[in-house]
């Protein structure tokens, strides 16, 4: 039923074209006005008639109608880039076929329905003389012909509806180039989300590890050194607040809330990572923004891993000569390494993408992480 409605909509859209063609034909037959004027009207009429099929709005309306009435799952048009010429041509062909099939169904119904009811309308005097003088037998023959045409029209409408549902993805769906572009865009979005997942792992993992160490230190000296315990609790509060803000920012990006996207931290924000359990030796740094952002995350995850795999305070050294060198060292833990996950692997991937080198693991009695990043042009 809905497919029949879709076809009849095409017939309704055909009416302005039919009326325009009728008016133009009448002008030619009656030779009203000059030939130049008639030709100018014809050119304008053709331009107006050919414009709608190539409009983006027409394509979107046809896609919406096909979804609702044909039951076809069609992707919407990407408004960020104009449709290609091949897409416009397919849309114009669909529009023309929609109007032609709708007009055919509409004309068939306009003929079949009155004929099928002829025997009854003649008896009521509603169509007296419309087909000339008819005998009772002739009246019934016309009625049977109308019923037959109506059956054929219904069957044809069903067939055209199925054909339209089959052809809609071909003519209204994306082209191979558009599908490839969509796949590439989807891969980029997935890569961005994976990057954000690493960001989330690094930042929140570091915050939780730092809070755990600070809480343990505060508990150990709570009675002996209340001042230090109070300082550790303040550090826990500040670390938790920063982690919550960063978590909110990352989740906002994952919700595609790009308007509120906050800038990623860089080496200028390195003080956020330094606690009483970290001794820092930082030289003069002048690196490109992308290296600075990735270096911040590498330092963050290195300190987290030092807390997991080592014991006691960690030493952070950051220096720059021909390349940026990051080193985090602390004493190895006597027990099994705490935690796990993808921290070291995430650091390796960051360093690899920048063309650098990284070493992470036990070094005698120490746990050492050394990353070297090319700085490139600044």
UniProtKB/TrEMBL annotation:
MF term (GO), any: ATP binding
- Answer whether the UniProt record assigns the keyword Membrane to this protein: yes
GO cellular component terms, semicolon-separated: membrane
Q: What Enzyme Commission number(s) does the record list for this chain?
A: 2.7.13.3
Q: In what residue span(s) does the Signal transduction histidine kinase subgroup 3 dimerisation and phosphoacceptor domain sit? A: 192-257
Domain of life of the organism encoding this protein: Bacteria
First-level EC class: transferase
**InterPro entries linked:** HATPase_C_sf, Sensor_HK_TwoCompSys, Sig_transdc_His_kin_sub3_dim/P
Keywords for this entry?
ATP-binding, Kinase, Membrane, Nucleotide-binding, Phosphoprotein, Transferase, Transmembrane, Transmembrane helix, Two-component regulatory system
Reaction equations catalysed: ATP + protein L-histidine = ADP + protein N-phospho-L-histidine
| Transmembrane parts of this sequence | 36-55, 92-120, 140-161
Entry keyword annotation includes Protein transport: no
Identify this protein by name. histidine kinase
Natural source organism = Actinoplanes italicus
């Amino acid at each position: 039923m809905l497919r029949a409605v879709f076809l009849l909509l095409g017939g309704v859209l055909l009416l302005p074209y039919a009326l325009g063609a009728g008016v133009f034909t009448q002008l030619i037959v009656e030779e009203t006005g000059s030939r130049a004027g008639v030709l100018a009207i014809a050119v304008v009429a053709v331009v107006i008639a050919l414009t709608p099929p190539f409009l983006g709005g027409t394509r979107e309306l046809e896609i919406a109608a096909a979804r609702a009435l044909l039951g076809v799952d069609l992707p919407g048009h990407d408004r960020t880039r104009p449709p290609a010429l091949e897409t416009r041509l397919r849309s114009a062909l669909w529009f023309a076929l929609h109007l032609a099939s709708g007009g055919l169904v509409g004309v068939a119904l306009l003929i079949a329905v009155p004929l099928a009811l002829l025997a009854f309308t003649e008896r009521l005097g509603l169509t007296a003389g419309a087909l000339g003088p008819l005998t009772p037998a002739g009246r019934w023959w016309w009625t049977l012909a109308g019923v037959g045409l109506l059956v054929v029209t219904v069957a044809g409408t069903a067939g055209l509806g199925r054909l339209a549902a089959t052809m809609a993805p071909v003519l209204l769906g994306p082209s191979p180039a558009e599908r490839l572009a969509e796949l590439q865009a989807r891969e980029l979005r997935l890569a961005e989300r994976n990057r954000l997942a690493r960001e989330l792992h690094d930042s929140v993992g570091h915050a939780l590890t730092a809070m755990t160490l600070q809480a343990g230190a505060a508990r150990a000296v709570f009675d002996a050194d209340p001042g230090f315990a109070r300082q550790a609790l303040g550090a826990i509060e500040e670390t938790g607040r920063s982690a919550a803000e960063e978590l909110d920012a990352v989740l906002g990006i994952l919700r595609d809330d790009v308007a509120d996207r906050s800038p990623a931290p860089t080496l200028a924000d390195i003080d956020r990572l330094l606690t009483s359990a970290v001794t820092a030796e930082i030289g003069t740094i002048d690196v490109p923004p992308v290296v600075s952002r990735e270096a911040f995350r590498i330092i963050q995850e290195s300190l987290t891993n030092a807390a997991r795999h080592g014991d006691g305070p960690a030493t952070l050294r950051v220096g720059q000569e021909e390349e940026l060198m990051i080193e985090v060292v602390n004493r190895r833990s006597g027990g099994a390494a705490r935690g796990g996950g993808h921290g070291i692997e995430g650091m390796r991937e960051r360093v690899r993408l920048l063309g650098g080198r990284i070493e992470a693991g036990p070094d005698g009695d120490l746990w050492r992480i050394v990353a070297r990043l090319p700085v490139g042009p600044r």
